[in-house]
Design a protein that fits this description.
The chain is built from 6 helices and 9 strands, in the order ααββαβαβαββαβββ. It has about 220 residues and is of the alpha/beta class. Helix 2 crosses helix 3 and helix 2 crosses helix 4. It is globular and about 60 Å long. The N and C termini lie far apart (about 45 Å).
Length: about 220
């Protein structure tokens, strides 16, 4: 057996262990677990970190960004309550891992990234993995994607100081947004947001404390 074969076998074993761990941590949604099992996380992390691809930790990528902890990816995905028919907007493509997971359990993913080199790398991964239901763009994510709105679901993978009104307005009446938001004590709380029946107020549920990189404005070409 070659070293490559050994690594691939190791990664398969670690992926299976991760799924068992996620079940033990309370992730019960079968679609979410299947999508994570089907998505090769090693394809989204630097090669030097492949051995840690299925550790339940966040890992650094480039430009001060991270690929989220698998439990957080699973938790956010499960709270979107996907059935396979939804159009999902993701703010913060990053490595592309969350979008890849979502692509297996929704109709189409629209994903926005503000750092050009990260988006280019993510698009390359989508192509290599033949994920044809992901549409991506370089833009300031806090404004969403109004031309493609409304969306059934919105997921924000960076911490916001408050719930962005532009994103809230792009959710369908029966839609869901999952987003980390800064709290008064300086921490972040993962929140689930929906409109009420009259669409005059948002129903907000706190999920758990989290830690994400901040939601930043404007486009970064990665030249600095």
């Amino acid at each position: 057996m070659t070293e490559t074969d050994k690594l691939n076998q190791y990664l398969m074993e670690q992926r299976a262990r991760l799924i068992m761990l996620l079940r033990g941590m309370g992730i019960r949604d079968k679609n979410t677990l299947s999508a994570i099992e089907y998505t090769p996380r090693e394809a989204f992390v630097p090669q030097a970190l492949h051995q840690h691809a299925y550790d339940n930790v966040s890992l650094p990528i480039r430009y001060g960004q991270t690929i989220s902890q698998p439990f957080i990816v699973a938790l956010m995905t499960a709270h979107l309550e996907l059935t396979g028919k939804e159009r999902v907007l993701e703010i913060g493509t990053g490595s592309g891992y969350q979008a890849a997971v979502l692509s297996h359990i929704c109709r189409r993913v629209y994903t926005i990234e503000r750092i050009r080199p990260l988006l280019v790398e993510a698009e390359r991964r989508f192509k290599q993995l033949k994920l044809t239901n992901i549409t991506s763009r370089l833009a300031d994510g806090q404004f969403g994607w109004p031309e493609a709105a409304p969306f059934d679901r919105v997921i924000v993978t960076c911490g916001a100081s408050e719930i962005p009104l532009h994103l809230l307005e792009q959710i369908k009446d029966d839609g869901i947004m999952v987003i980390p938001v800064d709290s008064e004590n300086g921490d972040q709380i993962l929140k689930k947001v929906t409109w009420n029946k009259n669409r005059d107020a948002a129903v907000i549920t706190d999920i758990m404390d989290v830690r994400f990189v901040p939601l930043l404005p404007d486009i970064d070409n990665g030249e600095s």
